[in-house]
Amino acid sequence: MHFHVITLFPEAFDSYIHASIIGRAIKDKKINVSFYNPRDFTKDKNRRVDQKPYGGGPGMVMEAESIIRAAEKAIGKKKDVEVIFFDTSGKEFTNTHARSLARTKKHVVFICGRYEGVDARVQKILKAKKISIGHYTLTGGELPAMVVIDAVSRQVKGVLGKFESVEEERTASPEVYTRPEVLEWKGKKYSVPKVLLSGNHAEIESWKQKKKSTE
Known about the structure:
Helices cover 30% and strands 20% of the residues. By secondary structure, it is α/β, with parallel strands linked by helices. α4 crosses α6.
């Protein structure tokens, strides 16, 4: 699985993609992440990639040409490619989408906007899928790209090590406990639910199912 990120700030990904599960997946060559900075693809001698919006309005808008060139470099002649354009009006990203990407695509290209957004023609020309990770506004597309990379990577065979580690493939509960059995904090005692100490696997699974259904 190869992720291609079009961003003005590739350094924003450094700590995240080199840590924990994602870092190990890259090291083990289960996934790969490449970056393309639009400034490297602009014709402007000062490497400027933002322009004033037509029709007026606050702020600046990222120009189309440099982003399209960067995306075309990422896409090349590859097949099984999906281009993602982050937009709050897009389809909500879910685990179902993450699983589909992991199973049907070998390459995913992310367009990470900044400033007041990206020239709308980018999405149209690249036939990019508009997706949203939530009904809120962020300063750029880098965080959404990290979220999607994480969610999709978990679905790639071998990244988590065990099939059972993928939450949707096992009975997971929103409540988990570990030692001590009784936690004392500021004069109060907090105990692990008795059913989890019973050793009765059927009852434990039933308890987890009930907790999961009330999430």
